[in-house]
Write a structure and sequence with these properties.
Number of helices: 3
Distance between the termini: 14 Å
Oligomer: single chain
Largest sheet: 5 strands, mixed
Strand order of the largest sheet: 3-4-2-1-5
Radius of gyration: 14 Å
């Protein structure tokens, strides 16, 4: 199974419990299914675009900057569009995906858009 995972936080970017949760969840998922491949797309607020590849995990960091707009909600929407664009690059590089896995509302716009366009479960 090939999973596109979206998370607002992933180390070293950790604001609260979400980043810690995803950091702990990923190795557990990979250990539970030796056929699983995870493509994690996450924002970076102070850095440049980067991709890190591990055994069955690819982490794509998407620069979103701060602030993007006049309101927090608009910033979240704009950042989600950048996540969608980065997910398109992941698809172009690695091929089809079987599932979109998202954490909390901060990546909800991207998750919904990808679910609709890829026609895979969310």
């Amino acid at each position: 199974m090939r999973v596109l995972m979206l998370s607002w936080e992933y180390p070293p970017h950790i604001v609260g419990g979400l980043g810690h949760h995803v950091q702990a969840l990923v190795p557990e998922l990979l250990a539970a299914d030796p056929t699983l491949q995870i493509y994690l797309v996450t924002p970076t607020f102070d850095g440049e675009a980067a991709e890190q590849s591990y055994d069955r995990l690819v982490v794509a960091r998407v620069p979103v900057g701060r602030p993007l707009n006049d309101t927090y909600y608009a910033d979240i929407q704009a950042a989600n569009q950048r996540l969608v664009d980065a997910a398109g690059e992941v698809l172009a590089s690695y091929g089809r995906l079987d599932l979109v896995h998202a954490h909390d509302w901060l990546v909800g716009f991207a998750a919904e858009a990808l679910h609709d366009s890829l026609h895979v479960p969310l």
